[in-house]
Specification:
Length: 294
Amino acid sequence: MRFKKITLVGIGLLGGSLGLAVRQRRLAGEIAGYVRRPEGIAQCEQFAAADYATTDLLAAVSGADLVILCTPLAQMTILTRQFLPALKRGAIVTDVGSVKGGIVRELQTLVRRRGAHFIGSHPMAGGEKTGVAAARADLFEHAVCVVTPTKKTEASALRKVEGFWKSLGADVMRMPPESHDTLVSRSSHLPHLAAAALAHLVLNPRHPRSQAALCANGFRDTTRIASGSPEMWRDITLANRKPLSRSLAQFIRDLQKFQHSIQTANSSGIMRFFETAKHRRDLWISRSASISPE
């Protein structure tokens, strides 16, 4: 799977990692990058995340066969509207956003009017560090990448997008946008809220200084993702607010049930809570290496 020109709109952790991976695997004759600020151009050159970077969005997109939106969710529709005049007919636009429903509905319509194709993508890869300096060429290897076609998606464009992610070493899974948003609200978005809530509570400066000193590896591991980009997670929370709100409500109910077991000294209920959690996680870990997405 090779493209003449790939444009990365946004060169942070994911955009930079895409640039490095595409270059390493020689998937494009030319890699262009769009950045918001002039200083971003020097960073892209320093880390070789693109052949060239520019603050001129139209120039970056012009002539591209594949355009990948790697910005926070709230910027994707705005930037797409801006670069549409430069988007060539037959080009493919995809993204790396963590929420798919709204983005797919909006961008599929916009891009089709230009005679091009939009197909939503979500590589389940990333980290708490942000910026192109944290980019890695192997970030997508063995990661699940969800592709979210609709009834309006052209089959040949879908094959190219799936082939692209497979060329990066990802395991591709097809899923309707709404199903994707429900599932990731539990498995990706809710854990971030839980990590952030723990950081808020435990590291509150009103506590004695000794509180932070008693935060060891368990706390560090559990709250690692709370160091992620606040802008990105604000956008994710707002974009997926209905599924996430439902998942959060269920999580709160489960915690309240466990709280009742504590208050009533229900030893068997407490034991069952921990046993079930251990069994389910151990089973997931043992199966995860052998699961092959459809």
